[in-house]
């Protein structure tokens, strides 16, 4: 039997990352494949305490429906996070979502008709590409370099395509490349979006995880006409299991997101929102983030230094100043999917980079995550990966 599914499902395939993650559950595998925060840094005991307090002090509220826009004290706390990335806003500008992933899905729902064009960085976050695909757009991947999207290329594409609805960008420590946009490019993006009347979806889960280099404000900081929709999340600065993120946008746009949320799940979990709000009230989140940055920097250093020592010279990789990922470019003749098979045989996993390009190609690239493995595993894993790479090198 085969049921008759909607045409939009034709475009939606199982994510390669999800499939890989299933494989990497085996304990003997050292996995650089996921994007997981370090579990040993989750504030488990603190959350246990605040959870009891929430239930003792406001149990019935915690278990009741709440407003779609979100739990007010949490919205107030979120405005403080926005301040950290250089954006002044009011609680009314915030909608609490189930992770920033929900904000991505709603962006597609709100802006895209079939055949509309989404512009994104090339490469871009696979989870966003997949979320948008449900709305049947076409994708144009805008070429990038070490300073972000190349603005001349973007300008050309905007001039030649009038069906562009939004530009999707991850300006800080991008997933998958680890790259960060320069300030000039952030400003130029706003100018071009204003000129061509397109929205900007700024997806920024890693902005607060800068462990070295100069601080750059979010793209929304430079927004002059209210066309930047900022997606934030507690997943990487706190923990992903509670599934809490947010949209920060101007009133008219935010109202569309509120309507989308009402149709989707009415609201994010009241009790989770109250737990996080209580945690933020009683504990020092800034100190927690500082600690995360310290650990991630150490792991980044270890991964990069081991790659420098173990990888053949032809292999290039990024050295991110924050976030969770580094991006590796192999010689063109080498296919990262074939390498992944060899690597899994040696009990080490990563995500081949080809899947991060909306229109394919670039099969000689791969993404490595350094946040979720301890020091010893990083060194052993990179050594194993180096062996797999060497076995595929041409003389
Ligand atoms: N955007 C990017 C760029 C991500 O890397 C992720 C998670 N890996 C998400 C969005 C989704 O995060 P969440 O839904 O947990 O907030």
Automatic annotation (TrEMBL):
Keyword Cell membrane recorded: no
Residues covered by the Aminotransferase class I/classII large domain: 48-385
A family per Pfam: Aminotran_1_2
GO molecular function: pyridoxal phosphate binding; transaminase activity
Cofactors required: pyridoxal 5'-phosphate
Database matches in Gene3D superfamilies: Aspartate Aminotransferase, domain 1 (3.90.1150.10), Type I PLP-dependent aspartate aminotransferase-like (Major domain) (3.40.640.10)
Top-level division of the source organism's lineage: Bacteria
Keyword Isomerase: no
Biological process (GO), any one: alpha-amino acid metabolic process
Keywords tagged on the record: Aminotransferase, Pyridoxal phosphate, Transferase
Assembly and oligomerization: Homodimer.
Family indicated by similarity: Belongs to the class-I pyridoxal-phosphate-dependent aminotransferase family.
PANTHER family, per the entry: AMINOTRANSFERASE, KYNURENINE_ALPHA-AMINOADIPATE AMINOTRANSFERASE, MITOCHONDRIAL
Name this protein carries in UniProt: PLP-dependent aminotransferase family protein
Organism the protein comes from: Anaerosalibacter bizertensis
